[in-house]
Design brief:
The model has no long low-confidence stretch (mean pLDDT about 90). This protein has helices at about 5-15, 25-35, 60-70, 95-105, and strands at about 20-25, 45-50. It is mainly alpha-helical.
Length: about 110
């Protein structure tokens, strides 16, 4: 991302009281640093705090995948969509319910 000098001044001003910076994954942190690293106040060391599933620990296993689908009564052609988030306005669970309802109406194999 290329910023103009006025944008750089604005970002530097915005970051002036920054006490820490966190990203939800190492790639997100690297992207943040690639754009803002030289604009951060001295001493700020952004870190990554994983927010989600550790994909190195929880690796998909086809056999287990099929066992779980069978245990839940899901056919191989069922389209499965999951909302996984806090029941908080920020995560918009009611929007997810509306979307699920519309999906189910338009895709009979949705679960």
């Amino acid at each position: 991302l290329k910023m103009s000098e006025i944008e750089r001044k604005f970002v530097r001003h915005t970051f002036r009281n920054l006490r820490g910076a966190y990203a939800v994954s190492p790639p997100a942190l690297q992207r943040f640093l690639s754009v803002y690293d030289d604009l951060l106040p001295a001493g700020i060391k952004p870190r990554s705090i994983l927010n989600g599933i550790d994909v190195m620990r929880f690796r998909p296993c086809r056999r287990r995948f099929e066992e779980v689908r069978a245990a839940l009564g899901l056919e191989t052609d069922h389209f499965v969509l999951l909302f996984c988030g806090r029941l908080d306005a920020l995560k918009q669970p009611m929007m997810a319910l509306r979307l699920f309802s519309e999906l189910y109406r338009t895709m009979p194999n949705a679960r």
